[in-house]
Amino acid sequence: MRFVFAILAFVLAALMIAFGIAQRTVFLEPASTSMSTTVEDGSAYAVIDGSALGAFPGSQTITVSGSDSVFVAYARTADIQAWIGGDEYSAVSLDADTKSLAVTTTTGTEVAPAEEAEAAPLPTDPAGSDLWLEEVTGEKTLTTTISAPEGISVLVASDGTAPAPTDITVAWPTDNATPWAGPLIVGGALMALIGFVIYLLGLLHFRRSRRPRRNVPRGPRMPRLPRVPRPKTIKASEITGPRRSIGRSMIAVPLVLVTGLALSGCSPEFWPTAAPESTGTATATPAPSPEDTEAPAVDEAPQPAVTVPQLERIVGDIVDLTAEADANLDADSIATRFTGPALEQRLANYKIRTADASFAATTALPDSPLTLTLPQQTDTWPRVVMTVLQSTDEASVPTMALVLKQKSPRENYLVEYAVQLEASAKVPGVAPATIGAPLIAPDNKFMSMAPNEVGPAYADILLNGEASPSFPLFEAEGDTARTQLGVDYKAKQLAELEDTGTMEFTNAAGSGEVIALATNDSGSIVAVSVNEITTVTAVNGKATITPKEGPSKALSGIEKTSKGIQSTYGEQLLFHVPAANSTDKIVLLGFAQGLINSVELP
Question: Does one domain contain both 163 and 193?
Fold first, then answer.
């Protein structure tokens, strides 16, 4: 009977193991589901809409092929539509009826350019645009995986001129876990082990039943019988076969099953798992989380111009380019990422250093983390964003504030202001980067001073000191610009001037746009630029003025003159302007100053 039970256990073990293995082989469901389509209209761009990306839950694996070069980028849908503008493109969307991808040829809507933007040919190649949250390129074919939340689309192109890749496939992972495969395989191995034990017990019982019985107690002495030959003793091995070989083989089978199959079932897909608890946090990396791409639903304010990861990539590119351009005095390269007063200062510095290599370079942009990101709330262009780069080693690496501006969707962000923050500067509280801040009008009267009046008022303080009417409105403590550029500094210059000339100081508006972003205290952070003009004139026009070796001579190219020299110093200024009903003063947060022009008087 023991042998019957052992056989039944072995049969049951084989069935359990076979069914467990079958669940991971012949019965295994596909690991993903996919939809494919072909783009044949010859458009330079194809856009995979968010409805297609969200057809199934989970991350999206996009495979694109059909052109020599392949470009894929994902971004907010509105940004992709703005970049395409009025061009024709292939819209890839989900057909809800057939549950397949549908392709339609569509013409985009042109974004109205900013009034101050100059008519210039815009790039057609989407590679390198600041609007993309992530981009990848390849040759012939490309496969990438993203986790796109609602409101995200994917742009597919070749080089913006040639037709876009023709073959597009979107795949989603499916849950093909087999939670009972592991228990069946391990349970079958255990059942085989139980059958083997039953078999050993039956074999032992059989051996015992074949042994000679004990002698019966002696009774009355019987007569001696004739002696007959003793039969040959039959060994147990001659009845059951080679016991040792059977035992070893039967031990090997369950051991192999228990170790090999049990170990093969250690993967999580082989076992039942409890539903994970919700943590309430997004883990989409490098793809954006909904927090990074959508404004809160509480109000209907426009979305922020950029996300934090997007700005980190943009600023990283700018820092690398600036370091290389500063080292090589590359004016053409720096002009691709700088504009306005920030560009003026660097171009003048390059020209001076070309003539005088010992002249100090403009303050470098630190390769440091972004400690503050304040994008403008806007769905249109131009767009503005302010950020602060602060190194952990503040003693040797200055903290810099950048104000960047993007004029149109196909143009990249340019640095308009790059200022070094004051050591004592405390940036006021601002809205989170996921919300952004509205742009304040330059003539806004709800501040203690209208943003477009702040620059001229502060320049008057530098020129006249306490005699300026604006002196009581600005905080003097911690303001190092007054020490370096103010009345005392100008008096020192006058004292050093020879009797052969006179010196005059005047102010003028700078080339930068007045930019003001709202703060949490109903005030604003204001970036402005002013020019301070120093005019040195020869007395009676008879004396000769010889520029000192250095910046003025390098920019003017004048060896000597009997007329005079006019030098213009550009000043980039960053302020915190409180609300109109506040008793706080206007605080200088940071500044940057440098000679930008020097010419002979007419």
Answer: no
CA 257/CA 438 separation, integer angstroms: 68
- Quick: pLDDT tens for 182-209: 787 888 888 888 878 887 887 787 777 7
Pseudo-torsion of CA 525, 531, 532, 535, nearest 10°?
A: 180
Collapsed DSSP state (helix, strand, coil) of residue 131: coil
Mean pLDDT of 418-425: 92
Closest-CA residue to 587 (of 348, 425, 418, 399): 425
- Whether residue 286 is preceded by a cis peptide bond, meaning omega within 30 degrees of 0, is yes
| Strands (E) located in 77-166 | 88-95, 100-107, 134-146, 152-157
Q: Which residue is associated with the tokens 């059989």?
A: 206
Q: How many CB atoms lie within 10 A of CB 119?
A: 6
Residues 437 and 528 in one domain: yes
Same domain, 504 and 383: yes
482 sits in which H/E element: helix 480-485
Q: In 3D, which of 595, 116, 554, 123 has the Cα closest to residue 336?
A: 123
Query: In this structure, is residue 234 part of a structural domain?
Result: no
Q: Record the pTM.
A: 0.78
* Separation CA 532–CA 192 (nearest Å): 93
Q: In angstroms, rounded to a whole number, what is the distance separating the alpha carbons of residues 431 and 216?
A: 104
Q: Which residue, among 12, 593, 28, 34, has the nearest Cα to 342 in the 3D structure?
A: 593
Specify the DSSP element, H or E, that contains 556: helix 551-556
Residue 202 vs residues 41, 206, 420: alpha-carbon distances, Å: 78, 6, 90
Residues 168, 188, single domain; the answer is no
Q: How high does pLDDT run on average in the chain?
A: 83
Judge contact between 570 and 598, C-beta under 8 A: no
SS3 of 308-349: the string is HHHHHHHHHHHHHHHHHHHHHCCHHHHCCCECHHHHHHHHHH
Q: What torsion do the CA atoms of 377, 365, 354, 352 make, to the nearest 10 degrees? A: 70
> How many Å apart are CA 35 and CA 61, to the nearest integer?
11
Residue 278 counted as domain residue: no
d(CA 568, CA 516): 25
| In-domain check, residue 98 | yes
CA-atom Rg of the chain in angstroms: 41
Asked if 430 and 537 sit in the same domain, the reply is yes
- Which tens digits make up the pLDDT trace of 266-301? 566 555 665 444 343 333 334 444 444 444 444 577
How far apart CA 229 and CA 102 sit, in angstroms, is: 99
What SS3 state is found at 602? coil
Looking at the structure, do residues 552 and 502 belong to the same domain, yes or no?
A: yes
3-state SS, residue 183:
helix
